[in-house]
Every structure is written in structure tokens, then in C-alpha cells.
Design a protein that fits this description.
MMCE/EMCE_epimerase, eight-stranded mixed β-sheet, 8 strands, 2,3-Dihydroxybiphenyl 1,2-Dioxygenase, domain 1, Glyoxalase, single chain, metal ion binding
């Protein structure tokens, strides 16, 4: 398992992109919207030499990102860890008594499969497990 990315909830996408590219020297590699229920967000992927972040803004009032911004404000939303095989990692974690937010299991338009762990196991940190089966 290795760190894949950090998701950051932002209120102003363009302002955030400018900060992470101009000030911190990252490169904007992709912007897209995910209208799926339970996601409903705009996403900008910023790449650095050895890591990347995802900037997240809500596209609807009932988006998980909108709820996060309302409850906690802008900032780190989640940390994602890449595993070799997502399905096996889920089974292994469940054998250890961990639970997942089952409705978050999905694939992105860019081939990443993911699921969020119940944050009660990770000391309140929203934790994503993901893999890239077609990479």
C-alpha cells in the first residue's frame, strides 16, 4: 500500500488551482466533473514531482463535499491509499473488523476504483482505498 493522493475541499476552484500551480509549482493535469449521486463534484488534479492532489468543489447542495465544507470548512477532505487489488484489500480489512461506506464503491472515468473506509476506524480521517486495475 502506498499513498496515492490527498483530496482537498475548496470553495473557489480557480483560486485553489492558481495557488497550487503558481505558488507551489504543481501542474494542472486534468479537470472534470463527476455528477454521480453521492459524488456531485468538480475535480482538478494537480501533479507534483512525486505526488498529486485532487481539489474538490461541490456541484450540488447535497454533495458530500458540500456537507464537508459546511461542517468542517475547506481543507483536507480525504487521504487515498493505493492497493494492488481493491477487492482483496476490502476483504482483508473486513476480516480485521473494519467497515466501509459501501455506497462509495465506484470507478472513476479514468480507471481508478475506490471505496471509503468508515472514518471511525481511522481516527476521524476520511480514508480512501483505491486501485488502477487497467493501468
Amino acid at each position: 500500500m502506498k499513498l496515492d493522493h490527498t483530496g482537498i475541499a475548496v470553495r473557489d476552484m480557480q483560486e485553489a488551482i492558481t495557488f497550487y500551480t503558481t505558488i507551489l509549482g504543481g501542474k494542472l493535469v486534468r479537470e472534470y466533473s463527476n455528477p454521480a449521486p453521492g459524488v456531485a463534484s468538480n475535480i482538478a488534479v494537480i501533479e507534483f514531482e512525486d505526488a498529486h492532489i485532487e481539489l474538490l468543489t461541490p456541484t450540488s447542495a447535497d454533495s458530500p463535499i458540500a456537507r464537508f465544507l459546511k461542517q468542517r470548512g475547506k481543507g483536507v477532505h480525504h487521504i487515498a491509499y493505493r492497493v494492488d487489488d481493491l477487492d482483496q484489500a476490502i476483504l482483508d480489512a473486513k476480516e480485521q473488523g473494519l467497515t466501509f461506506l459501501e455506497d462509495t464503491y465506484r470507478s472513476t472515468p479514468f480507471g481508478r476504483r475506490l471505496i471509503y473506509m468508515n472514518p471511525r476506524h481511522s481516527h476521524g480521517v476520511i480514508t480512501e482505498l483505491c486501485d488502477y486495475p487497467n493501468a
